[in-house]
Every structure is written in C-alpha cells, then in structure tokens.
Amino acid sequence: MGLKALDYESINENMKKVEYAVRGELYLRASQLQKEGKKIIFTNVGNPHALGQMPLTFPRQVIALCQAPFLLDDPNVGQLFPPDAIVRAKHYLSMIGGGLGAYSDSRGNPGVRKEVAEFIERRDGYPSDPELIYLTDGASKGVMQILNTIIRGEGDGILVPVPQYPLYSAAIALFGGSLVPYYLDESSNWGLDLNDLRQSVARARSQGIMVKAMVIINPGNPTGQCLSEANLREILNFCFQENLALLGDEVYQQNIYQDERPFISSKKVLMDMGPPISKELQLISFHTVSKGYWGECGQRGGYFEMTNIPPQTVDEIYKIASISLSPNVPAQVFMGLMVNPLKPGDVSYEQYHRESKGILDSLRRRARIMTDGFNSCKNVVCNFTEGAMYSFPQIQLPPKAIETAKRAGKEADVFYCLKLLEATGISTVPGSGFGQKEGVFHLRTTILPPEEEMPAIMASFKKFNDEFMEQYA
Amino acid sequence: MGLKALDYESINENMKKVEYAVRGELYLRASQLQKEGKKIIFTNVGNPHALGQMPLTFPRQVIALCQAPFLLDDPNVGQLFPPDAIVRAKHYLSMIGGGLGAYSDSRGNPGVRKEVAEFIERRDGYPSDPELIYLTDGASKGVMQILNTIIRGEGDGILVPVPQYPLYSAAIALFGGSLVPYYLDESSNWGLDLNDLRQSVARARSQGIMVKAMVIINPGNPTGQCLSEANLREILNFCFQENLALLGDEVYQQNIYQDERPFISSKKVLMDMGPPISKELQLISFHTVSKGYWGECGQRGGYFEMTNIPPQTVDEIYKIASISLSPNVPAQVFMGLMVNPLKPGDVSYEQYHRESKGILDSLRRRARIMTDGFNSCKNVVCNFTEGAMYSFPQIQLPPKAIETAKRAGKEADVFYCLKLLEATGISTVPGSGFGQKEGVFHLRTTILPPEEEMPAIMASFKKFNDEFMEQYA
Could you name the CATH architecture of A110-339? Predict the structure, then answer.
C-alpha cells in the first residue's frame, strides 16, 4: 500500500524542523521522573500558578460570577462576593451579550478591545484604535498569526535575538521562513549591538534572504534585560532604515525588578519620534494575561495592537482569525480586568493592591536571591534579572565535561541540565534551546519557585554545580 | 522604500486565497446594520448561547468554583452551590494541580484525557488510549493541527464533501494544499455516492494530486444528514482501498433529531470491521463542547482521538502543540464534565437532565418547524435536518433574479441573502460559501433562534421569499 498520510515519512517537513526546547528532552525526562515519584521543581516554563502563586482574588470572583450568572439573582450572592465584583461581572455580561458560552467576534469582544485601547492610551499618552487591537488565545497565538502573515517561504527572513524564546524559531520553522539571528551581548548585560545587527542583515541578504521583520523581547526572555528608551529609538530607526516591520513582544511589561529602566513601550517611543517614522513604521505589539502579577497562563488570553498596518492586511488577519471562530471568551474578560483594574476607593482595591504588590515585591527579591545564588557558584556567572521571569546564568563547563557529553551524544548544556535534574529535581532548559554563541553554555530557569523555598533550591543547585565542576575539573 | 512587510502585496499569498463565508460579506453587512440599530437574527454561526440558549447550570457551577477555589473554604459556599458541584470542583482542582491559571501539558490535562478515553470506551465498546487523545481550543483548532500535519503543498489533496463547512476549504487553502471535492446528493437526502467519490479521486490523481485524506462531517454541516452504519462501512472501506486517512468531524454527535439513524462513531464502525482495516486505517475523530446541548462555543474546548497513527507522528503533533503551550484550561474542565456527566441519583442530576433534555427536545421541534416552513415557500425545497444545527434549503432562483444579481456583480445566492437580510434582519450564509453544483442555490441557517420566535421568523422569511419570487418571476 505504500506510505500512509500520517506516517512520519509522509508528514509536513516543516513540522519536523521545529525545535521547542521549553517542552523538550529535559521536560519529558522531568515528567518521567515525576511519574516515578521524584519531586520535580518545574522551572522550565514561566508558569507561576503551577509553582504555587495564588491567583488574584478579585478577577477570579468576577469570572466566577460571569461563568455562573444565575448567582447574580441569588439573594445570598453578597455573602460570597463583594459588591464591586458583582458590578463588574454585570458590566462584562452586558457587554458580551450571549455570555461566556457564545463565540465572540473573531477579533474579540468590541467592549474589551475598547478597554485595551484605553489602557494603551493611558500608558503611552497616544491614541489607540480598538479596531486595530485583536484579542488572542494567549500572546503566542498572536505571534504565530503575525508570523504566518509575514512569511511566504524560506526567502523571507525574520531577525530574532539570540538567545531567544523558542516560540520564534519554532514558528518561523513551522511556517517555512528563515530565522536571521542577531546576538545579544552578555558582557554588556544582554545589550543589543547595532553593528552586529547590521552585519546580520547584510549576511542574510547576501544569501538571498529578504529580511522582513525584527523581533524584540522587552523585558527579555530568557535574558531578563530591560531596553532603555535610547536603545528602543536605535532599534526603531534601524527598522525604519532597513524597511523592517517590528514585532514587540512586551508580555513582561509588568515584571520589572529595578528602578533605572522602567518599562517603556515600543509604541510610545515610536510615537515620540514623530513623522515620518511614527506614520510609516509597521509595528505589532503583544501582551498577555499570563505574566505580570496575574500569571493566568492557563486561561490563554492575549492581544496584539497593530500600528501603521494597511487596512487590507488588517482585514486578511481578521479573515484568518475567523477560521477558528473566536478566542476563548473567559480570557477576554480576564484581559478586560487586567487593563481596567480596580481603583483606589473601590471596596476590593486594598486587597487587590496588596496581593499584586506582594507578588511583584517577592519576584523582585527572588530575582536577587537567584542571581546572587548563581554568582556564588563555581564557574557560573549571571547577569541580574532586570525584568521578565527568568535567570539565564552562563555555565562555564570544563573541557572534560564537554568531552564526556560528546561521547554520550549530548550537547554539553543538555548533559549538565540532565545531571542537575537527576541530582536535584530542578527542571531547567539548556541554553542551546535558546541559541547561543559557539562554545558558550547557559541554562534558563524561572525565578518562580516559592520565595521560602528559594534558599534551599539555590543551595541544592550550588552543591550539585560545585561537585560537578570538581568532578570534571 | 518599496513594499513593507505587512503591505497587502507582501503578505502570505495563501491567506488571500482563503474564503470564509460564515464570517463573510453577509456577516459583515449584518454587523453593520446592527450597529445602525436594526434588529438582526444571527443565524450565520452555530452559536446557541448568542441566541438565548441558557448554559447548563451544573457545569457552570463547577467551573465557577474552579475559577474561585477560595469559595470552597467559605462556610457559606453551600448556600450558593450544591454538594455535587463542590465535590466535582475539588476533583478537577486536585487533578489539575496549579488550578485553572497554570498551563497544562500541551496535550491537555492527563486526568481529563483519561475521562475522555473512558467516555469513548463506553460509547463505542472498544478501548481508547488517553495518550492518543489531545485536548484543543475547540474542534476547529484540532482540525487545523491535523491538516497542517498532513499537507506539504499543493500536490497534497484532501477529499472534502460539497457542500462543506468552510473550515476545511479555508484551512486547506491556508496550508497551501488542494481541496478535492466530492458531492453529496441532495436528491437522496445528502447521501454520499461512492461512484462520485471514486471519480473525484481519479480526477485529482490525473491532475497529479496525491489524495491523502478524506473528511466526513457526521452529522452533516451544513446539510444535516446522519450517516448510516452501512454508509460508514463503505466510506471506511473506500479509504482503506485508496490508502486515505479519514478525518471524522463528529462535533454534532449529540444533535440527533430522528430515531432511524442514531449517531454511530467512525471509530466504532472501524473497530467492528476487525483486522486488517481496524489495525491499519488512520483515523482522527474530533469532538467539542461547543455543540450538543452544551453549546459552550465561547469556552473553546475540544479534543481529537488518533487511531492507528504512528508514535513518531503523534510526537510531532505534540511538539507543534507545545509551541502555543497549552489549550485553555477552563475548557478542559468543561470537556471533563461533558464526557463524565452527572448520573441518576446525584443531587443535581434531575435539573441537569431536565435542562439538557429540554434543549434537545426543543431543537428537534425547531428542526421540524424550520424544514416545514421552508418547504411551504415558493421555489424552496429543503431536506429534513436529521442532525447537527442547520437547515440548508435549496432556493430555486428565477433567471431574472440571477441576471439582476450578475449585473450587481454578486453571486445570485449572495444577492438573495443580502435582500433577505435587509428585509427581515435574518442573517444567513449563502450556499456558495459551502460549495454547490453549478446553477443550484442554497442558503444555510441555524435552527437556533428561540422556539417561541420561530413561527414569526419563518413567516417573515416566507413573506420575503414569496414576494421576491413574485418580483423576479
């Protein structure tokens, strides 16, 4: 009969080219060990609730009422829900019409998109148009929609930072495009070097690749740096000169752990620069309910805002979104709640503020504990996590470890991370999953384990690492 | 500067080829009219809650508790929630670990997948493996994942019924494959003719297309027919002979409005047939929480089950699902509740049973009212809606109407449906959006408007139609 449609040899070759280390060999091995009864600390994905972070109370109250609207008619509702949650649930239910069980418009509910636009206006000080904001099932889905729009084939290149979050390499491979890497400079706190960027573009062009867009992740994943306004200007100018669209992955905009470089959006900097660039540069900005102090990953809510994208293209993106009918509606309500939060004076404000500040303050302390912990280890150096949720220490592996790994048929960082997992239960992602310069090794871990466990985890890491370095010295 | 990355002329050509009539010209015009204050009856999408269907109470109670787990610690919880909802919420929360805000495994929560497997076993009488069941953000997303796996380029063909649900044509166009149509026979109640099927395959092969898979929609969308066991055997045998994978879209399996042909799954028929076919034929079956008496479209929950798919391919599909991290978790709980429903004796059983039976009984009556209504109209003939949620009447348009449409630059059925919309507010989808034989015209409407409004809607339709036929006689 020959090959069948779903035999491995028959299927889409682009799928096979995809690598996705965040859920790769290390994750699979960790899942296996967990099944066998070992205690695993999953720091492979930025998944705060899985590591014990409690959800914010107020949005969960509102969504519970939206899911069970009949509670609003129950005379006892006030015993379980505060009045502002009840008001807010009624607001979203009336905005949504058919409730959470009805498909929304494929771009998301118009009322929520308006709340997002108002949030962006307050944040940036410039107008935002709800018609150019599309809600998505998490930011990753939005990034995939846009890359799928841009990429026609392997002649189309996308500039991606290295180290990078593997969503980008995976999606570019799946859509059959070409990833054009630009390197972040670890020695200058993962800064971006314009000369290196220019060389990357020139090299790609000399290979016949049309470079179409540039990705920035700010704050950085896995690298944790926050871009300064001056740096963002340079990037925007570069994109303008080189005729590139800019994809601004800004999902960690609430996760800032220092005061020197607060988050500033690409959209604001672009608008500040004025015409012609502010009227011409094509920018897509991404955000999510999965990060920040929300961490509502499992709800799958996100949005992207399109700036200077022609209406015909906006319509095509709408049409394609329509194939899967609508983003999930509960997460649209979460997005509304995130961008239109409680205000001082609201009954639940104090609790909401206390909870969110508690999470952010603790993350800031954990970022410090982790960086200091790594820097106290033998052959490990680590930049401070200025933002986002990750620590990305460099592991300076001795030649003997590299050779041993090679003989075992493993990348050296994979070898190290597997040993770490077996010894301590700490499930990380090897740096090779994010890309790095030849012969330099890292791992990525989230800063999300509970704060009270952090000292023990870092001690356990140090013990493993220092013994490993001893063993392979 | 030349073209930019997101200028219409620069973007992915496959996107431009996509047509998606369910949210096409008619929907956009209807949305416009609604904005202007006109009352619109949206029957373009199978979206029950948008048309007033109430959600089932029990699952919404469970999900509300899962979203607000702190309620479980409140001494007053029993005043708003029945004890079985509380037990079930605790069951899912303990199964899920990090709660609804944590990413699950990219295939979905293992416990829910086990509940799905048990449901399939009870339904079909054959074993089902949770490792071969992947949860998705609605069935459409699952269909897209599988088509993306199968299609490598325009040389790969997928057999799709015509008329068809445009998800298939849209996804095949987006992935750059070739749609190979086979016609359903309206005169034999949208039956499937094996000879026609064979000819379709032969024709495609003569054009150099490798036909890789066949789609069936059972019960049919937009055509509403239920496949008999004999017919399913023929289809399976045909796929086996022709070395095709079978994609079984079974999202309407709970929506049956006659007793002669109850739903029977492709998986069961395949297993009944025994080896070699039961061990070799590659089958993917799709299901959802959006249809049935649930109608929870906005939650975006679905699954697919893979039968006889090699492990390496299963792993590739897993890897690609991992790029977007996980299907939304609340809808996974809905799926668990749907496949593992309340049983007689449970405190909330009676209400649950009453609500679901009420919805199904009413849908059955509405299917009848609508079919009879259409058949009472001048130049309209309509098969009975045996299942699913749609009526697909043939509109025999007079030559004068066809000419007038042509002069207006419209397809004749689009012309008719636009006039219908303007005159009555009824928003349908022209048959050309689903494909049909040359010179034959239809429209699709859902049977979902509230039962009490149905007579008035059908009267309004009849008045419009009969005047239209008069005018263009």
Answer: 3-Layer(aba) Sandwich (3.40)
